[in-house]
Amino acid sequence: MAEKQSLWNPAILSQAVAGAFTKLDPRAMVKNPVMFVVEVGSVLTTALLLEDLAHHQPIAFNLQITLWLWFTVLFANFAEAMAEGRGKAQADTLRKAKGETMAYRYKTDGALEAVSSAQLRSGDVIRVEAGQFIAGDGEVIEGVASVDESAITGESAPVIREAGGDRSAVTGGTRVLSDWIRVKITSNPGETFLDRMIALVEGATRQKTPNEIALSILLSGLTIIFLLAVTTLQPFAIYSHAPQTVFVLVSLLVCLIPTTIGGLLSAIGIAGMDRLVQYNVLAMSGRAVEAAGDVNTLLLDKTGTITLGNRQATEFFPAPDISTERLADAAQLASFSDETPEGRSIVVLAKEKYNLRGRDLTGMRVEFVPFTAQTRMSGVDLPGTRIRKGSADAIAKFLEQEGSSLPRKVSDRVEEIARMGGTPLVVAENTTALGVVYLKDIVKGGLKDRLARLRAMGIRSIMITGDNPLTAAVIAREAGVDDFLAEAKPKDKMDLIKREQAKGKLVAMTGDGTNDAPALAQADVGVAMNTGTQAAKEAGNMVDLDSNPTKLIEIVEIGKQLLMTRGALTTFSISNDVAKYFAIIPAMFAGAFPVLNKLNVMRLATPHSAILSAVIFNALIIVALIPLALKGVKYEPKSASSLLQRNLLIYGLGGVIVPFIGIKIIDVALTALHLA
Amino acid sequence: MISSLKIAIRFTLVTTVLLGLLYPLAVTAFAHIAMRDKADGQLLSQNGHVIGSAILGQSFAGDRYFHGRLSAAGNGYDAANSGGTNLAQSSKKLVDRINGDAATYSKTSSADVPIDLVTTSGSGLDPDITPAAALYQVSRVAQARHMDDASLRALVQAHTQGRQFGILGEPRVNVLELNMALDAAH
Amino acid sequence: MTANGWLQFVLFFAVLIALMRPLGIYMARVFQGERTFLDPVLHPIESLLYKLCGVNAEEEMGWRQYTGAMLLFSFVSLLLTYLIERLQHILPWNPQHLAGVSPALAWNTAASFTTNTNWQSYVPEVTMSYFTQMVTLAYHNFLSGAVGIAVAITLVRGIARRESKTIGNFWVDCIRGVLYILLPLCLILAPILIGQGVVQNMHAYTQAQTLEHGQQTIAQGPVASQEAIKMLGTNGGGFFNANSAHPFENPTPLTNFLEVLAIFLIPAALTVTLGKMTGSPGHGWAVFACMSVLFCAALVTIYWAESQPHPLLHGVSQSSSALQSGGNMEGKEVRFGIADTALFATATTDASCGAVNAMHDSFTPLGGMVVLANIMLGEIVFGGVGSGLYGMLIYVVLAVFIAGLMVGRTPEYLGKKIEAFDVKMAMLYVLIFPLLILVLTAISVLSPQMGLSSLNNAGPHGLTEILYAFTSGAGNNGSAFAGLNANTNWYNISLGFTMLAGRFLMMIPMLALAGNLAQKKSVPPSPGTFPVNSSLFTVLLTGVIVIVGALTFFPALSLGPILEHLLLHQGSLF
Known about the structure:
The complex is a heterotrimer. By secondary structure, chain B is mainly alpha-helical. Chain B is built from six helices and six strands. Chain B has helices at about 1-35, 35-40, 90-110, 130-145, 150-160, 175-185; strands at about 45, 50-55, 115, 130, 160, 170-175. Chain C has 17 helices and five strands.
């Protein structure tokens, strides 16, 4: 589902055209007061048109007005249907994955029974084997399996799911590729993650977001004001002995009320959610997307978000009187069996720098000593030689036991490395400390620039790390974050969020573990990793299907883009009114008072062509802006003042100027075609 | 609610005494003591009776006096019923009146009549005319009083008030003062 | 147009800017309950007043309670005014033995002065006794001004306070506003006015025998004391019918200068108070700049329009020279000429003062349109004392909401999120204004007996006269295209209603907004915060005001003054 759709996908387009008509249902229209007024106006003019027909009166002008009024409504409906259609197409892909699958449920006696996925209830335990689909959302309670989650994430590489820990959650509709697992079902049919995703993507459960509600109030207010201005114009016109037809009055009204933004508002909202989906992020509510735009503080976990998940060995620092080769050799030996990325990086560094190739150890009597939480070191035992690598403390303890101690120079080096933000790993052979391996955090490429861009927009980034403050400070500087929280425990994270929120700030964070859940719930934007636990996913208000924590930055940008699009089109819509006044008002009264033609600054051909041009422009501008509404306005990370300056120039000033040109062009065309 | 109402009533009464009685009466008392003439309207007396206020216009119709602005106050210069005509610029009545007056003036002078002589003032009590309007009338008054134009023009100039502090307002001639000076001089 | 005219405008603006800052900072101290240099004199009086009124000065009010107190006070004082007007013939200080005021007129006048409008359907010198003018009309000039300031301050507090349930104490705000701000300023201004010739006495009207042996009755009264607060409180209700065109109210160019200054002084200073109290002086200046831009645009247009010669006059010298200011002098005073009239007219309609030093009805169509449009903007260009600031802040809220999204955040105003409730209240405020004006004007023009029979002028100008009346009422301005005879039952009652609705129906959503803002958290500013203190914001705010505010009335204006202007220059008269 991650593939991007062309804006004018024919299938979506034809569905949207049909949707434009079904949405004419006044019960649906009334939810959008601006367009509802247009619809009422259209019905009114249609009725009067029929009356004109019955009385054999010339209808050319009134017919065109009426048609274009209907088009105005239809175009707005079309925009909404387009946005929904794009979501629906994505939902269909998901729905295929859902299907009806068979599940093997454990009975109370431990035997298996075959049931359909629809019969599974929360609490049931099922067994899924290689090749089978997982029938519902759940948690692995036994076994390890590789699972194909491409149906949901679009990522073809299989992921490992295993009991316990943070990789235990499985999603219904995904497929086990190897091994088997026992899964405890955690949701009832219809409430699964996939079900909710489908509903969200389709926009079926879409509710207006707080800002959308506020904007609707503004638009309704403006509509009432213009309704007043237009309805009271008739008495003034009667006083002036120049009464107007209902067609002309409705035309004026429809041109003045903010139909452009009124028609595109819900499309913008749906498209915003849709853009997130294209980034493989599911927002549980539109409110979350809005909040993303408002975020003041980003909490970024160091590991995985700021740095590549793992530290890498970058240098060997031998102890006095020890050659570098000897240190590298011992370090490599001690790391051969170490499958952690850090271990592997030591092997690679020794190989690359000192050309130490892997040795065949099979012939030797080698015993590997794995890392344990108690010893906090690992290593290798050869006959007569014990090589250990580990933290300075651990190795010092090891040496002490052997009746030796860590040389001063080595411990100095250890401190220095720590100060530089690295992780020192001390290597010892029997009673001799050989030296220090410098393990370094690698900051993700380009991160510094992106954080700087965020800073320009007023967003502070705070790095969360379990490292000591010294180390944290160095990485923070290297990554360009504004602040850091070192030696952080889950509770510290929570406190930090509350502290920021108390200052009135909105906080975004990512998380995957169960112990992240409270913080995810507390944060204004909590992005759970799809690989994370069910608890984390439930607590957050967004899920990143790619489980890429750096994506938080994109999420913020998409939120901002959504809000900017809304603001830009609102400003544009309201600015348009100036030109429309200058088109319609002189046209209305030029018959009775030819002198008012002086206000006809666009030199529109005739009163009829002027009014018609304004109405047509008003309708066409909705269609013309659909791509903008769906794609969002061009986003640039800048300070608020420069953004405002740019957007005011384009959408404010542009909104004043564009209709003057557009209406003039339509007028010329209408005249050329003898339509008015 | 009831207690608030009580406060509202007490508040209204207390502040009324302070602002509606004490304040204006204190200012009146101060004015009476310190600036009595100004406070009483700069009344001018001749032969023991009040002939008007130095800063209010009054009606002059005869050729022997300089005329002031047209007045819509009451039946003209009614200082107890001030106001303007409130005629619109697009009013036929207004344009006809001005053009009619201008036509009458044109019989005695070849120059265009200054606009302030053919328009009503806002108050109907404008004490002033423009220097242009005063000079415009010099020959008529001179003729009526058998004076020479030059000395009358000098009198007008002597009674022309410049802008206040050289910058505020417009140059003007107080018609009553000018006419009283005229009477005194001749 | 003359160089001296422009020089006077520059001088006016320079003096205004010089005075507004100290006054604005002083007002911030007054309303934050801080010590001022007047405390030694005024504090004991203040305490005495609290005691006499039974006010607990320590008590803070929520917005509902505040609104309740404001409405109760307004109701009680309105009632008292009505009674005094009706009973003035048996009350003291009525040397002319004027009769009690008729019910419809008494109602209209009570509503008018309670709402700071000072619309006058009557000729004061033949209708109101000195007692009525002092005790009710001048009194309301103080209190309606103080109420306006108090309410504006609550909105400023709403912006400045964080997570607060209260917005101040209505009684305390009123008393401090009167005692520390309005009264001292009046005590400075009134003596200067008297020194220049504004009368101040309790005499009966003077009988004069004119030079040509006619009779002239000269109205007198305690004018200067009322004149001072009439201007400082942006009330505008004249002691005499001709208002500030009357030489006894506005005798010299200096008094004219001071009166215009007095109109703008407090409203302009309140922008400084806004900046001070919200800790964002730049924002105060940005708002002031927006007001100044709109003011200058109107001033230049009126000055230009009124300097133009009438196209249909013959044999009349209308050009400006060293000897006359020329232009349209109908309804204007010679001592003010065109420049001082344009300045006064712009200020009095930009602010909801409504005093006039010339007859707006006789302005050129375009000059008249601008004074009307000034009111139609919602009395926010400096505006009434207090009401101008809160009206402007409503537009600020709307501007922030409309354009705020364009910086990619949900709208935020000085740290306060603008949400659905705030927008609803702001829109309600904005909506009531055109509703009153347009609907009541429409009813009037459709009714030959009730509406059209009062007209003084026909054609498009007639429409403008009615439109102006309801605009003035709803905007609480009080100036008039005075040719319209508004002393009829229809206009007295409908305008009375318009004034009350234009004041209180707009204040209530405003206070609700203040209360709602006060209880919100405040987001600290960052580079991503919507800037409300830049020149860019000034441009935006101006644009929103012009588009939302003025375009509402464009259709009506096009059939009124615009049409009148075009027809006049085509040679049509009515």
